[in-house]
Amino acid sequence: MASRYGKLRSALGAGTVIQGKLSFDTAVRIDGKLSGEVFSTSALIVGKSGSIDANIEVDSLIVLGSVKGSVKAKERVELLAGGSLEGDLTAPVLVVEEGARLSGDCRMNSAPKIPAPQPKKEIEQEAKALKDKKAKASSSADKAGEKAQEVRVH
Fold it and tell me: N or C: which end of the chain has fewer CB within 10 A?
């Protein structure tokens, strides 16, 4: 099964119970119960029947079931309708669908940097023209002030 997080190579089915540390580097879906710790450089998908009670550090987390514990995601967390997360959450991107539940502290850390759009040539030319116009007006005002001073001196 493929997802936008890469090929799903592992799944823990409903009825499966795991206690301990789970570490993986490709997307994993959990429909059973897991307690302990989860570490990944990929996505963790918690299915509708999935239940996790763990400290989680992953790239991405998608929740349709229930998660309880501390969550740190490098890329994003998605709480889909029917999903719940109880605990502290840190992620640059958080998506919460209607019908999902979030209970706990949420910290939005730095989102991936998106380069600022570069101004188009027309805008740059307009800005230069305005700057030149201001400079001319300022120069004319300075010259008028000098002439006024010259008149007063005579």
Answer: C
Please report, in tens digits, the pLDDT of each residue of the chain (154 residues total).
Answer: 445 555 556 667 788 888 999 888 888 899 999 999 999 999 999 999 999 999 999 999 999 999 999 999 999 999 999 999 999 999 999 999 999 999 998 888 875 555 556 556 666 777 777 778 777 776 665 555 555 555 454 4
Q: Are strands 6-7 and 2-3 parallel, antiparallel or unpaired?
A: antiparallel
Do residues 46 and 62 touch, judged by C-beta distance below 8 A?
A: yes
- Nearest of 91, 44, 85, 79 to residue 66 by alpha carbon: 85
Residue in 87, 62, 91, 61 with CA at minimum distance from that of residue 74: 91
Q: Write the Ramachandran bin of 128: left for phi over 0, alpha for psi from -120 to 50, otherwise beta.
A: alpha
pTM flag (> 0.70): no
